[in-house]
Design goal:
SH3 type barrels; 3 domains; 27% helix; globular
């Protein structure tokens, strides 16, 4: 019987992933990573629910304390990003450095098993032609989480199972109810675990970054209002600016050096290209010449047609077929060929 270590957050998705693999005949072991103190699916409340699921399924439950790793690689990463005027995407960083990497290492070294599993909605297949594992979108396009997984390595793809990748969220809920899982009716987490713990991203950031009043200015330098910290804003933001204007204005740039939030109308908030660094080509080798693919620049945004210009040193330039709104430094640009995740990186400018 094959052993598999299942990451349990205490939510319904990971619970069904564990139960499904057990039903398939795997020897399932549960693992919860202790990321930080407080409530939330990744923390105290989540650990209790994960333990209850393991008790219900009759499987062992391991808890690994990686709070120091989470502090250094996620919390410090977020704070330094917001301080520098970008809007970081912690989830892809967390998946690679905090979750999948440590989980796979723990599985192999401590439990002598070669596979881990999570409740993510994504799929993996092996490409015989290129002899590489490919990351694919989930069948359920509304729950697809491949955008957050672009940063995984080939070793991680070879060792991970995604039991929910071929089903819908409704099917997951149905399975949980049929099995009478203790998490069957648990509400779905809508926010980052940090927001669940601190109440809002603003509260979290205000605990780590001092508020410094500055100006909200137009694209031509006219002062339109005041802000209480550049870190409270993001590119493309319109609501909550607290300024009066004859037309809707959007944040187009954050300048932490001058302590300014620059705004403009929607036309000026669009851009025709951007640079992306820290590229990870997950499903294909790094291309040496331009390619035409689709790019997703936010989790909930649709994939759009782009021309990819390789720049070397894990950097590319994206040229959009149609200028895009809200291209945000710090967020991920993930490249797709249909259902295949080709790779992704962090939007630089």
């Amino acid at each position: 019987m094959s052993k598999v270590l299942v990451g349990l957050s205490g939510g319904v998705d990971s619970s069904v992933a564990a139960a499904s693999l057990q039903h398939q005949g795997y020897e399932v072991i549960g693992l919860t990573l202790w990321l930080m103190k407080g409530k939330g699916q990744c923390c105290s409340e989540g650990m209790v629910d994960a333990a209850l699921i393991c008790e219900q399924l009759g499987i062992p439950h391991h808890i690994v304390d990686i709070r120091d790793l989470f502090q250094a690689n996620i919390i410090d990463y977020l704070v330094s990003g917001y301080e520098s005027g970008v809007t970081p995407l912690p989830c892809s960083q967390c998946n690679k450095v905090i979750k999948f990497g440590p989980m796979l290492k723990y599985a192999k070294q401590e439990l002598k098993c070669n596979h881990i599993a999570t409740g993510h909605y994504a799929r993996v297949r092996y490409d015989e032609v290129n002899q590489r594992y490919q990351l694919l979108r989930a069948v359920d396009c509304h729950k697809d989480q491949s955008y957050f997984l672009y940063n995984l390595s080939q070793e991680m793809l070879a060792g991970v199972l995604f039991p929910l990748g071929n089903q819908t969220k409704e099917e997951t809920r149905k399975t949980a109810s049929e099995l009478n899982l203790k998490t069957a009716s648990k509400p779905e987490s809508q926010d980052l675990c940090l927001i669940e713990v601190h109440g809002s991203m603003k509260t979290f950031l205000d605990q780590h970054i001092s508020q410094k009043e500055g100006n909200i200015v137009s694209i031509d330098g006219k002062v339109l209002g005041k802000h209480q910290g550049v870190h409270h804003y993001t590119i493309g933001q319109r609501k909550g600016l607290g300024i009066a204007a004859t037309e809707p204005l959007y944040v187009i740039k954050l300048d932490p050096v001058m302590n300014q939030v620059i705004v403009a109308n929607r036309n000026n908030a669009r851009c025709s290209d951007c640079h992306v660094n820290r590229m990870n080509w997950i499903s294909i080798p790094e291309p040496s010449s331009p390619i035409q693919v689709e790019a997703q620049i936010r989790y909930r945004s649709p994939a759009v047609s782009v021309n990819v210009i390789p720049l070397g040193n894990h950097r590319i330039k994206l040229i959009f077929d149609d200028p895009q709104f809200g291209v945000t430094p710090g967020q991920a640009a993930v490249l797709y060929d249909g259902e295949i995740v080709l790779g992704g990186g962090i939007i630089e400018r």
